Amino acid sequence: MGRPPLCRWAPLTRVEDCRVNDCRDCLHLETGVYDGLDRRAGDKTTASYTFRQGQHLAFIYYYTKLNGQPPSEVEIQRHFKVSPPSVHDMILMLEKKGLIARTPGAARSVRVLLPREQLPDLE
Questions:
Q1: Pairing of strands 111-112, 100-101
Q2: Domain with CATH 1.10.10.10 in the chain
């Protein structure tokens, strides 16, 4: 009897106990595929992000395309109906993962670094 699989996003948590993003992110351990990414093969041709991160990326991309400027954190907060700290934490996480870029001290400076083909549809 081996050890139970651990969640990729909460490494000290067993898959069946994980509560990260409503357990959607643990599906890759059961199926090996999540959001079209084959995690078993270590797919490096597309970006690796969670469902919620993908939705934030898609929102930033489409908002920028429609309005000619990136959304503010308040606009992201209103769209996803979340708290200001959670939006800021998401922006920092996306930047840390190399999925977006920002100009320090400049408002509305968020840029999505992925091509449209690697972004999910906005739900």
A1: antiparallel
A2: 51-118
Burial of 33 (0-12, 13-18, 19+ CB in 10 A): middle
- The structure's pTM equals 0.63
CB atoms within 10 A of CB 61: 20
Mean pLDDT by 10 residues, the chain (123 residues): 51 51 45 41 60 96 96 96 95 94 92 93 90
Domain 51-118 indexed as CATH 1.10.10.10: yes
- Residue 95 amino acid letter: E
Alpha helices in the chain (DSSP H): 27-31, 51-67, 73-80, 84-96
